[in-house]
Amino acid sequence: MYTDYTEYSIVHSKGFKMKKNRNNFCPVLFTLDLIGGKWKIPIIAQLQSGTKRFNELQKGIEGITARMLVKELKDLEVNSLVTRQVFAEVPPKVEYTLTQSGKNLKPLIGEIKKWGNSHLNKV
Questions:
Q1: In the prediction, which pLDDT does 26 show?
Q2: Residues 62, 13, 116, CA angle at the centre, nearest 5°?
Q3: pTM score above 0.85
Q4: What are phi and psi of 112, to 5 degrees?
Q5: Residue (of 56, 123, 54, 45) closest to 81 by Cα position
Q6: CA distance 89 to 48
Q7: How far, in Å, CA of 84 to CA of 1, rounded?
Q8: Is it the case that residue 107 has pLDDT exceeding 50?
Q9: Backbone phi, then psi, for 107, in 5-degree steps?
């Protein structure tokens, strides 16, 4: 479980890196650093059905603002979970797709959904 490295970094869309001490490295916390928060899992879940444009993502995620979607997509892109492809067109066309690492989260997100459904009435 532990590695020989003393630190790992999580890159955020604002360009800064959060350094974490690997002496207390926990894979669960590392994963939550990458996909935690209110919006990242819904974004990844939307992209599991395939490539989407910005407006498609925004319409598919109830309550997310354009500003927050941009921020979260940048974080996911910087951490290699999403790719962003810009087409030289007028108006500009941008598409988002999960990387292989992002696609590998599908079983995890499926289990989170399953757990949520089973505990929905217990809370």
A1: 79
A2: 40
A3: no
A4: -65, -45
A5: 45
A6: 26
A7: 32
A8: yes
A9: -65, -35
The residue extents of the domains of the chain are 38-119
- Spatial CA neighbour of 102 closest among 54, 55, 34: 34
Instruction: Please write the tens of the pLDDT for every residue from 37-77.
Output: 999 999 999 999 999 999 999 999 999 999 999 999 999 99
Tokens 């997310």 found at = 64
Q: Are 102 and 78 in contact (CB under 8 A)?
A: no
Counting every residue, how long is the chain? 123
Distance CA 64, CA 38 (A): 9
DSSP the chain: ---S-SEEEEE-TTS-EEEEEGGG--HHHHHHHHH-SSSHHHHHHHHTTS-EEHHHHHHHSTT--HHHHHHHHHHHHHTTSEEEEEE--SS-EEEEEE-HHHHTTHHHHHHHHHHHHHHTTT-
Quickly name the fold that domain 38-119 has: Arc Repressor Mutant, subunit A (1.10.10)
**In the Cβ-directed half-sphere of 19, how many Cα atoms lie within 13 Å?**
5
